[in-house]
Amino acid sequence: MKKILAFLFVGAILASCGSSYTTDKDEALELKKEQTEELKSYYEEALEIETDFAADEKEILADYGGKEENLIKKAQTKDEDALDALAELRDLELDKSVDLRELDLEHVDFNNALRRSISDIKKINEEKDIKAWLKAIEAENEIQKDLRDAFEKKVNKLRKD
Predict the structure, then answer these.
(1) What is the per-residue pLDDT across 57-94, written as a single tens digit (0 to 9) for each?
(2) Residue 4 and residue 11 in contact, taking contact as beta carbons nearer than 8 Å
(3) Rounded mean pLDDT of 37-62?
């Protein structure tokens, strides 16, 4: 699940910039920094989606001791209320998935262009000439990793509550 979340969130950044391919090191670094800044609002929006889902899920499961397995057991008895609650829960899950996917799709073109830019810059320059640039890119990657980890902790906490 963590890998799926990481893939989804790594694929998401900067809708407003569209495709921004460049082979200019300074421009690519600036775009990487913008990507890092945009991640903050991205994770805020994603956390809001997750929080809303958790609240709705909790409300649905309240009549079943707060546990999905209790809802499933009740639904196995063909109880209409349980079957309706199960359908509502699954609809919520699908809606959450759609919302997160739409959030990702807003940013995918920019992210792909930046990833390609960074890859090409590495290929067309001597490593010794881009040593400082690579360190700066890696620093941004670390900041982005920290943002992702903080987001994942918050989501995991939501799921445990």
Answers:
(1) 999 999 999 999 999 999 999 999 999 999 999 999 99
(2) no
(3) 96
The structure tokens 């090191």 sit at 25
**140: which 2 tokens?**
């941004």
Query: Which residue's structure tokens are 């890696």?
Result: 138
158 HSE (CA, 13 A, CB side): 19
Signed CA dihedral, 24, 29, 31, 32: sign only: positive
Task: Give the start-to-end residue ranges of the domains of the chain.
Answer: 34-160
Q: Are 96 and 49 in contact (CB under 8 A)?
A: yes
Helix (H) or strand (E) holding 94: helix 80-105
Mapped onto helix, strand or coil, the DSSP state of residue 44 is: helix
Write 72-80 long-range contacts (CB < 8 A, 24+): none
Tokens of 84: 């309706």
Q: Determine the Cα angle at 153 with ends 149 and 157, to 5°.
A: 170
Q: Write the pLDDT tens digit of every residue in 94-152.
A: 999 999 999 999 889 999 999 999 999 999 999 999 999 999 999 999 999 999 999 99
As a whole number of angstroms, the distance between CA 102 and CA 13 comes to 12
